[in-house]
Amino acid sequence: MARAGLTVDRLVAAAADLADEVGFESVSLSALARHFGVKDASLYSHVRNLNDLRTRLALHAGGELIDRIAVAVAGRAGKDALAAFAGAYRAYALDHPGRYAATQIRIDQALIADSPALRRTAEITYGMLRAYGLDEPDLTDAVRLLRSTFHGYCALESAGGFGADRDVQLSWDKAVDALHLALTHWPREMRNGEEER
């Protein structure tokens, strides 16, 4: 019998802690069952399978990440907002490596549409980028540039991949400066053979 008080939220919170301890890929239903002192089968009344648990963990971690970013960017615009956004993103990725890894998995589009946290992520990210005068499809391109830059930097940093004798914070600040310049001078989508001005 499942321990009294075992809920989906408690399972996901425990999975998030476990992901930070042992890595996202090592999160399993068996490990969670051991944590709660129950049989594996007891968890199936709360989650369908491991994929369901990992998807819930991804949504949970995505909510945590955007909460941090929202606090950081509140009342800021332009380069200040970009730097605050980037700093909050990096801090979360480095402080919570397992949770952060969960945010990188592919999630069914229907679930994304139903997730308040992921809708909020889009609103905050696109809102920040609109301050640079971007509209679609440039917004999507800019989001992809930011995400790939932030993720690549954080992945390399957390793996100890920067060996040069240069402070990684200074390089990060320079990368954010470069992104600001790129967004300020964004090459607009071509229309009728001419670059949009």
Describe the protein's architecture and organization.
There is one protein chain. With 197 residues, the protein is mostly helical. The chain has 9 helices and 2 strands. It has a two-stranded antiparallel ribbon with strand order 1-2. A hairpin with a 2-residue loop joins strand 1 (190-191) and strand 2. Helix 1 (8-22) crosses helix 3. The longest helix has 24 residues, at 50-73.
List keywords for this structure.
197 residues; mainly alpha; two-stranded antiparallel ribbon; 9 helices; 2% strand; globular
> What level of helicity do the residues show?
55-70%
Strand order of the largest sheet: 1-2
The class by helix and strand makeup works out as mainly alpha
Strand proportion, as a percent range, falls in under 5%
- Shape summary: globular
Order of helices and strands: HHHHHHHHHEE
Number of E strands: 2
Number of helices: 9
Low-confidence stretches: none
What distance separates the N and C termini?
66 Å
Q: Give the integer mean of the pLDDT values.
A: 90
User: Over all CA atoms, what is the radius of gyration?
Assistant: 20 Å
Largest sheet, in brief, is:
2 strands, antiparallel
